Amino acid sequence: MTEPASPRRQRPVLRAIGAIVGFFLLGFVLSALLLWPFAPVLTRGATPAELAAHPPALFVLGQGLILMVAFAAATWVVGVKALGLSAGELRWRTPLASARGFGIGLVLGILPAAVAMATGVFAAGATWSHDGGSFGQWVSQVGLTLLFLAPAALSEELMFRGLPMVVASRLIGRGAAVVLLSVLFAFAHIQNPDVTAAGIGNIVLAGIFLSLAFFSRGGMWTAFGAHLGWNVTLAALAAPVSGTPFDMPYIDYHMGSPAWLTGGAFGPEGGLIGTGVLALATVLVARWNRKEPT
Length: 294
Known about the structure:
Layout: H1 7-35, H2 39-43, H3 48-53, H4 57-82, H5 98-124, E1 127-130, H6 135-160, H7 163-172, H8 174-187, H9 197-214, H10 219-236, E2 251-254, H11 259-262, H12 272-291
Antiparallel strand pairs: 1-2
């Protein structure tokens, strides 16, 4: 007959669950409080559906900054003050210098995104066309897009690969924590424009890829770089990012067909090409982690 769990065993489990729940509650409450006074400026009267389909650049930047600040504060309150976790345990201080870890992450994100789009050209008839504007305007817009998407990428890493990943890994093991939080990461995108079941599945895979980057020698910096590199590359090459379109001067990208292969209106994350590229990137990061243990 199985003995009931002892109070000593129950307390750490309940504490870990409470910490994760408290982290998300605190983060979202702070986000709401910070967003409330700026909402009229950021939304400019747009409905939630309009913001999801065509978010203004100011809204993308403002929302990303608010979420980043809120969940950074939640990390400090719950992770540092309540749980006593160090910067190293939260994977901010790692064997790789922050700049090098971030740079490696950028490469890990840029290359798969570019390969996915280029594969669409050869396998599904995707094309680029001139869309007005100059090359100089495109370069300037790419720089602005990087700055605007950086807070959003970092905020999602704080939410799904930061404190919750560290605490959940200690509670249920690294593999189970990676899968659980990657599923939650995908469901956070379920209201995105033109989302499909394949798109949600690929975002789960992207979450696993980013989780392995988080557990690499570059820690949070590499995960942040990979997330930002993937998003900015898709946007810079004029493809939708998780269903959100980006208007870029100079070029336009036509996804090709069939949609189940290319991702259609959801972008490369919604198609079988994206599945293959993300799976390959995940395997490569896993192999890198085995060669250079954390």
